[in-house]
Write a structure and sequence with these properties.
The complex is a heterodimer of chains A (about 425) and B (about 900). With about 425 residues, chain A is an alpha+beta fold. Chain A contains 21 helices and 13 strands. Chain B has about 900 residues and is α+β, with helices and mostly antiparallel strands. Among the domains of chain B are: about 140 residues, no CATH class; about 170 residues, Beta Barrel (Barwin-like endoglucanases); about 140 residues, RNA polymerase Rpb1, domain 3 (Enzyme I, Chain A, domain 2, Orthogonal Bundle), CATH 1.10.274.100; about 140 residues, Orthogonal Bundle (Topoisomerase I, Chain A, domain 4), CATH 1.10.132. In chain B, α24 crosses α26. Classes of the chains: A alpha+beta (about 425), B alpha+beta (about 900).
Amino acid sequence: MTRAKSSKKSSKRSREQAKSRSKPKETREEIKAVAEAEPTLRQATEDFIRKTIHEKAPYMPKRIVDELVSKITANNLTEEEASKVIDLAINEYVNSLIEPGEAVGTVTAQSIGEPGTQMTLRTFHYAGVRELNVTLGLPRLIELVDARKTPSTPITYVYLDEEHRHDPEKARSLARKIELTRIENVASGIYMDLVTGIITLELDPEMLEDKGVTVNQVKSILEKYGDVKVSDENPYTLILETGIVDYLKLSRLRDKILRTKIKGIKNIKSVIIQKRGNEYVLITDGTNLRALMKVKGVDPYRTVSNDIKEIEEVLGIEAARTMLIREIMNVLNEQGLDVDIRHVTLVADIMTRSGTVKQIGRHGVTGEKESTLARAAFEVTVKHLLEAAARGEVDELLGVAENIIVGQPIPLGTGKVSLMMKTSAIRKKQGDGG
Amino acid sequence: MDEYVIAGIKFGILSPDEIRKMSIAPILTSEILDEDGMPIRNSIMDPRLGVVEPGRRCEVCGNTIGQCPGHFGHLELARPVIHVGFIKHIYDLLRATCRNCGRFKVPEEYIKRYRDPERAIGEILKIYRKMSDRWPLLARRLSETLKREAFRVDRCPFCGEKQYKIKIEKPTTFYEEKMEDQVKLNPIEVRQRLERIPDSDLEILGYDPKESRPEWMVLTVLAIPPLTIRPSIVLETGARSEDDLTHKLADIVRTNERLREHIASGAPNIIVEDLWELLQYHVTTYFDNEAPGVPPAKQRYGRPLRTLAQRLKGKEGRFRGNLSGKRVDYSARSVISPDPYISLNDVGVPIEIAKVLTIPERVTSWNLENMRRLIINGPYTWPGANYVISPDGRRIDLRFVNDRKALAETLTSGWIVERHLMDGDVVLFNRQPSLHRMSIMAHKVRVLPGKTFRLHLAVCPPYNADFDGDEMNLHVPQSEEARAEARTLMLVQEHILSPRYGGPIIGGLQDYISGSYILTSKATLLTEEEVIDLLAAARYVGPLPEPAILSPKKLWTGKQLLSLFLPDDFNFRAHANVSAGNLRCDDEECFWDSYVVVKKGKLLFGVLDKKSIGSQQPESMFHHLVREYGSEFGRMFIDNVFRMFIRILEKRGFTMSFDDIVISEEAEREIEKIMKKAFEDVYRLIEIKERGELEPVPGRSIDESLEIKIMDEVLRKAREEAGEVAIRSLDPFNHAFVMARTGARGSSLNITQMAACLGQQSIRGERIHRGYRDRALPHFKPGDKGALARGFVVSSFRKGLTPTEIFFHAAGGREGLVDTAVRTSQSGYMQRRLINALQDLYVEYDGSVRMPDKSIIQVVYGDDGIDPMKSVHGKSVDVDRLIERVVGWKR
């Protein structure tokens, strides 16, 4: 406290002074030589750190050992200090291991359920982009835990390969290619002539430009419905001779024409280009992972959608698990809720352990419990009881709910511990004494 | 005493024989009471069915009320009826088996594969048995598919009989479609068909022929449940009101009697059929009064009867209401209030409650004198005792003992005294909703005058409690084991760290934070007198440190006082909460004192605030203290040091008043200017849009773009600017501002709203526009899209709102209320489902996470075996922190 500084300026000055006071090179080397001899001064090397850890605690995870090595050497600790740090690290690691019998499931359920009460219900939030709404908050969390077939706002994050990644123009052209464009998206009007059976299609030049479609493209697509001519008065008007004069048939054809795909991928309603870090990423409204991954220019290794079921189908169950964890963490973090990832992995693991994504609830994890009583205590009580009677089921009272129902200690935590004792030894001892 | 553990519960269907065997009395008459009003034997009120009146002994088991479990009777049905609950099973079995020989209709492909149907069944059975041992779910799938395939077989592979389509009508009637006409299958025929199905064929279909033969799904004998499950209520008038089940049983017995008589007298078939159907209806509603297609049976006043299925179902049903959650004794509930002078671990219990709740204490030679004193004090003076239990199990109620002194004299080792709750006893304390394990924690009792439970302020966050009328529950563990567990595992100090994220959920809050800031700020210099007072509040014992200033007067800094309580080897450095904006510092020796540095247990720089001692702040100073020096140290820190923080506020005075939110006239004018400009900007934007020149936000319509621009670019900015102006004009030691800066309470937004401007009110993220046609309120012109017309509130809370502003503010506020109401139910259900899905998981001794059947969910918990509660915000080993601990003082 004696050196309390009165202003920023003076502290800066003192630092400069300290610099100038630093010792000349020769003395530094002399000190180094002395330090080599003394363990309290000798700098800890990587070998030293690894050897010490290996001798004391060979079970230390590699990740922690590596972190210790890099940080200890980076901070130029002496061997003595390094040993202290290593001892503390081993101690901390061993002390923070989970204890056997811990009711991790309940803790997880509470850790995810409790912050649910603090979440906002406001469904929509911007996911970095103003243009796209993404369901977040409690509704999204429920959606994930429910393992719904389709999310309410399906979205794909399309990452691009080396060639397209850095060039906004190339990214844009890819976006145009992906985006599902129907004739109705570029048309400004469509008219039927019931007498001649001619359908007149007016195209919107601005939309054509925006979607990157030419009149000729549209024309060639329309050709499968009949003869197509470009109008003489207006280069953006197409005339289709169908030869159909029946009103019903003609209007059905008109609807069909409007829905005809010009280009793009099914389900991809719109595409937005966003810069993430130093690359361009396409964000699509709607998903079709299988098709998107095949598109040239897309990096299939990083492209993901937020549809867990789709991921499961296309990329497999492990990918679904990873995505589930990522999505749940994303929802929680977005709301500013601090939940340890271990809880989220446990939920994801129980949902995916059978090889398919199972819902948390009646039609999934809980519904497949072995215990009749546990199922009956959850939902649709009577049905489960009658079913059990017909099948002659036996409840072996292994779980928590069942044991609470019959009034016994639960098989978790302190209830899990039992005592095994050799009665013969006791009898012998009593015999000796008496 | 032997202890039994229930190893399992087997489910099955009662066979008629079993029902008769377990019956104590056949039900023969529909009369219930005789002329004297006594229940008639062999009626549904037969006294042998169970004891319901106090004082009577059961003829059957000799027990009195409460002990006698009740006994079943039985009723022979004149004609069989179908059990509604099994309708689906009966329907499936009828379709899957032959109408003639009752064999399972083995589908074509299996006959081909195994050559003949008999062998096919044998082979499938073998596979099925093997499967059901290891993969019960798969076995169920197999029988389900087999069944489905068998439905389509139209000629029996065994007897060659042609099969007809079977139809089901509404509740319980089956028809067989022969050629063009439908033939009704009555329960007798149904039962006969079910009887013909051989055991082996049933097993393939997933039934257990030993425990549940399908013909038992058609009832010929009805079990009459004991009186104890359907007690009658005696009203004040003396009239008896029977239970719903008794009513229903009376209907059944009456109809059955009539049916039997009509059959005996050879009544025409139509009448018999009608009565039969009526009997079926009564039995159906007896089992399930909400069965689809059946009009529910009503009680006299139109209320639907609560019959068997209804008793089990739902939140208040037997399962969820009585079996999964049970009512308990030795509990209390009262309003809570704060007490800053008790320990974190304590709970203040009113004397009145302490005199009712008891703990059974075994008398030994060590506590004999004490126990005698308690008995002499009796049940009405605290500390006393309510009951004494002698070694032979007699229970003596001290309320009715005249000479308690004599009783106390006879007390010897081996007696049990149920004594009042006393200081230091361990009890469980709970606040609903119990969303995490910190919602029930163990506290040590402090018996206090008054009528409320008292608790330490720092335990409010885990309980989510405040003192606006909250009530909490208290439970007294009765066994030594329970108390030991409560003390070691559930005590408040063991829950300072939350398992949700590695960080403290208990810590400083509100005034504690303001106090720590005031105490440790550079401006605080304390005289000897003050130092002694503060240290006394913290119960410090030891010498005073060397004063920081010796002359002209001995003065100490707050940092010195705090350092007295830090362990000598504690190093720590971090930003303070106040380190933001222009007060930000990223290194020690900070001019603004906003970088906290502790070296060797001495607080050298920085003020302590929310980031250092706050609750729910992982990796804070308090977190590291608790982790590194233990929960006992953490508790003592809260008990002692936190009290010092309060004391300094008491000495200096720390209030917030109207003056704290008054800003200078100059600032006022500036804000007015900002607002005026913002309004003009809004109209300008609208004008640009009208002209069609507005640049749209990509992916949005022009109207939406306009709204976004008005909200985000004009009005939000206007409020922020106004806030900045207001805050700039406030004194930095203005108490409201101090609280916002240190994180004690409120934010700069709150100050802005009080001092400068409330800002835009919104519903669903949009400006308020609904109400009247083209306008929100009739005070504005139709189509006005200006700031004021769409819910922008220029006034501050200090100045007061105009009538239209009040309206907009209320509308915005209402949305928040609705939101909360909807959310609680949704998240509650989600949590119930999560708990149900995950509650059985545990960590095995090998570190894996398993289901109770030992199947593995995770090979290593959390992929690294680390308990999040013991981690540092998720990290098991925080290397940076370790280096800081070891060499932190060096730099």
